[in-house]
Amino acid sequence: MAAAFTVVLATPGAAGVTTGSGAFSTGQLQVQTAGQTGCGTNQAGEPSIHVSRAGLVGISSETGLGGGSQYWRGSSAATACGLTYAGQPNAIGGIGLSGGDTDTAFAPVKSSSGTYRMYVASLNLGSVNVAVSNDNGVTFSQMPVQAGLPLDDREWIAAYGADTSLLSYHDVATDNIDILRSDNGGQLYTQLARVIPDTDYKATNNELGNLVIDHRNASPVAGGFWAYQSFVAPSTATGSAYDEAFAGVSDDGGSTWAIKPIGCSTSFGKNGLGHVFPNVSVAPDGTLYYAMSNGSAIYVARSGDHGDTWTCSGPVSTTKQAIEPWLVATSAGVDLVYYGTPDARTWYVYFAQHTSGDLTSWSTRQVTAVHQGSVCEGGISCTGGRQLFDDFGVDTDPAGYAHIAYTMDSPALGGSNSATGYAVQTGGTPVGYPN
Q1: Beta partners for 106?
Q2: CA-to-CA distance for 389 and 376, rounded, in angstroms?
Q3: Residues 313-330, buried b or exposed e (16+ Cβ, 10 A)?
Q4: Which of 82, 78, 87 is nearest to 32 (CA)?
Q5: Cis omega (within 30 of 0) on the bond before 430?
Q6: Is-above-0.70 flag for pTM?
Q7: H or E element: which one contains 409?
Q8: 44-425 fold
Q9: What is the pLDDT of residues 323-370, one digit of tens each?
Q10: Is 162 exposed, middle or buried (0-12, 13-18, 19+ CB in 10 A)?
């Protein structure tokens, strides 16, 4: 559940369209027939998207606790209507008992089955459920619901090697960020650490973002690997606003964590950076990129030394309001998506691309309209404007083209329901391969 923020729209004004690199095929994914491709309708929202090193696209989305999760898969060369509906990976006994806050990951190394293992994590009331596929999403093995967790919220999953994955989540009892690890392909997760020391004031006052693992750069610890957890919190113990962004950094595979503040984020964070979620990505050369929103604009920070020092951009977004950023850092640049409104009325998916040597140059375009009216980011506390939920995503395929999963009003703009959409970059500049 997100921290409570409502974006209140002002009187509508003239719309301004920002154009830039890239052309996209867009469509709404279907859930009518498992095993079939094509667009149609669905009632899922808040998707997660990743692309494997073999170019296989995987998208999960949720229909809410008790409603189950949905999954689509397909070749990165496909159009927006080319993905196959793979059913509900987190269903238990054919019933979608899970379905809250899904997240996905692909292993970067092939398993003994000869494929890149897929993970789909989903909240399941007081626990987290992880489903795993070893046949490119044709079937999923239902892993036992993770036992022994306290009441939890907003989990994230990231994979390393053929068989290892880390799972992070908000521990509702303490508000800290807990880390679990599996070394047997997701069959068993063991509590490993907390990202923030219990004695740190931020342990009980934070909003977490995503979890990522560096697949290409060796850590200084034998048998370890670099992992990064994003979160925002007050910059001081007496503060109330989440006015500073932080990165939890582990060099030993998640066993221990150091907190790295992004000091330059306080210059634009005074009104709060909890416009969900903060997002971190690691480039193939190990450079970190970190996106965040203060409700009005999107900002990006960069670190070349594992979070020890950071450089922040100015506003990257060009709209009146911009929220919910997600980015992917690649071998030749960065792709960034966010929800923005140019006229304080209609919200769009925006796609921004950065290929220069600094953070000042971004090429931006509208991809598709997704919502009209106010937007609430307060989770279950919202009484309206909840159609976009809290999260969407972007990844690049091995050729460097972008793939975006987003939430939209259904059946049309201004609708009271939500649906998952998919956009494939079909032209423009590819930015390189991801980590």
Answers
A1: 118
A2: 8
A3: beebbbbbbbbbbbbbbb
A4: 87
A5: no
A6: yes
A7: strand 402-410
A8: Neuraminidase (2.120.10)
A9: 999 999 999 999 999 999 999 889 999 999 999 878 999 999 999 999
A10: middle
